[in-house]
Amino acid sequence: MKNVLLIFLFLVFISNLSNAQLRPGYDKSEATELLKVNFRFADSTAWDSMPAPERFEFKYRSKTLGFDNKWDYWEDKAGVGVLSLRGTTGTFASWGANFYAGMVPAKGWIKISEKDTFYYELSKDPKALVHVGWTTALGCLWKDMDSLLFAQIDQGKKEFYITGHSQGGALAYLLTAHLLIMKENGIIPADVQFKTYCSAAPKPGNLYFAYYYEKMTQSGWAYNTVNSLDWVPESPFSVQTVNDFNKVSPFKDAKKAIKKLPFFPRLVVRHMYNKMDKPSKKTQRRFEKYLGQKLGKLMTKNLKGFEPPQLANSTAFTRCGNFIILYPDTEYYAKFPQDPKEIFMNHMLEPYLLLLEKLPK
Questions:
Q1: Across the chain, which distance is largest between two alpha carbons, in Å?
Q2: Which of 199-221 are b and which e, b meaning 16 or more Cβ less than 10 Å from the residue's Cβ?
Q3: Residue ranges of the chain with pLDDT lower than 50?
Q4: Is 147 inside any structural domain?
Q5: Which domain holds residue 246?
Q6: Residue 267 and residue 249: Cα distance in Å, rounded?
Q7: pLDDT for the residue 17
Q8: What distance in Å separates the CA atoms of residue 64 and residue 72, rounded to the nearest whole number?
């Protein structure tokens, strides 16, 4: 009887697997299709010149929110949903969100407006920090996304892609973390599955945010597709100081170790240490002042009632998650001759699609 029960449970498990649409691992066709979904945010007059998604059907578009942010909901015939986040637009608010590059703890709250406060948890690591501009932007979108997503889950939908290109990719990182932590906390049912495809996404937070994000997605559930000639994934500016290291390291208490040296070696090593340590801390403070505090004040003009949160004393941004690197070849350089004046030439749909086609299945 026991063996019969085990066989029955195994068959049920296999049946559930066969019905699942989402599977771990990078899928070139998924990445290509979702890239096309991302570029549907372009003006509709440009749609005829762009390849359209074939698998997914458009269902919903939010109004403009926050720092000129929008999100779309798409769905395929099997009921698999897509949460697609818009990238940077040409407005000051949108670019301001990018350059508003201070850091805040990955768990906290931001007062978005007089009536709306965004409570978020993007990591269980207390050392994790995230980009304040993009976290605020996610907060502006969240109430709208929250209602639609949970309505879909209540209807029995259990599989969702999360996707975004450029700034949209940064938001996709943060949204993925937010939703996976909600699963860990029991707010979202454990059998709901998310799979994330960012493309050209910049650095969303510090190393400890990256560590926990990678822990949650390391079984093949999240990727960032990057053209190696694209400058956007290299941003934002990052400065690492001794304060950004783990507590147990030779750098935290370097001054104490230097004091134990004999007199003359101590003078020499202390001089060398200060020459390396002070400039990095000074640069970090400048980035925090201009890209954090001052830009935060400017952003209040674009978001009525927004109160800039207290910033962490760090700007140690780092790349995050599993990367799929697209390397240009001779055909690429022939089609896209590198012109320093065309700063987005390696960032748009056509170059990404060309290189994606060259990936093995």
A1: 81
A2: bbbbbbbbbbbbbbbeebbeeeb
A3: 1, 4-18
A4: yes
A5: 27-358
A6: 22
A7: 40
A8: 11
Per-residue CA distances from 174 to 2, 29, 129, 132, 245 (Å): 45, 24, 11, 11, 23
Which tokens go with 194? 């998310």
Task: With beta carbons less than 8 A apart as the criterion, state whether 349 and 35 touch.
Answer: yes
Residue with tokens 């975004």, as numbered in its chain: 164
Specify if 206 maps to a domain: yes
| Alpha helices (H) in the chain, listed in sequence order | 2-19, 28-38, 92-99, 132-154, 167-184, 207-217, 254-259, 263-287, 295-299, 330-335, 349-358
Q: How many structural domains are present in the chain?
A: 1
What integer pLDDT is reported at residue 257 of this predicted model? Answer: 66
Amino acid code (one letter) for 102: G
Q: What is the pLDDT of residues 2-43, one digit of tens each?
A: 554 444 444 434 344 446 789 999 999 999 999 999 999 987
| pLDDT score, position 18 | 43
* Backbone φ, ψ for residue 311 (5° rounding): -90, 150
In a domain, 144, yes or no: yes
Residue 106 DSSP code: S
d(CA 176, CA 337): 36
